Amino acid sequence: MKEQSLKLGVETLLNEGYYKRYLNQNLALLTNQSACLKSLTLSYFALREALGERLKFIFSPQHGFFFEKQANMVASNDEVEPFFGLRVVSLYGPRLKPEPKHLQGIDVVLVDLPYVGCRVYTYI
User: In sequence order, which residues have a C-beta less than 8 Å from that of residue 68 and are 6 or more positions away?
Assistant: First the structure.
């Protein structure tokens, strides 16, 4: 029997060259720090390397971008991620969905949120 390996969305996007269709577009990414490649490289690091300045900012879900807001119903404020200085816009705090101003100039919103398939995982 042939062994099959798990294919992660962002890894497929990068390894299969699909990201090239976004090289001339501005992107936002809905994610948190749990999203990574098989190598444990954070997804947004890999996307930033591939897309450069085209990755404009990050939307964060419930529990915060760094997943530190574990208690239920704890809002997250907007922040700046420390490695690239990307703006992080919280979708669980001052707002529950993107505002029109966040989507101005954005052509594509990529979503990379690992899901464990159980009810206690509450974002989106």
Answer: none
Q: Which domain holds residue 84?
A: 9-112
Domain count, the chain: 1
In a domain, 122, yes or no: no
Q: How much is the pLDDT for 84?
A: 94
| 80 to 9, 39, 119: CA distances (angstroms) | 25, 24, 29
Segments in the chain below pLDDT 50: none
- From CA 99, how far away is CA 104, in angstroms rounded? 9
Q: Nearest Cα to 78, choosing from 104, 59, 96, 62?
A: 59
**Is position 18 within any domain?**
yes
Q: What CATH number is given to the structural domain containing 53?
A: 3.40.50.12170
31 touches 112 (CB < 8 A): yes
Terminal Cα-to-Cα distance of the chain (whole angstroms): 37
pTM of this structure: 0.84
Kindly state whether residue 118 falls inside one of the protein's structural domains: no
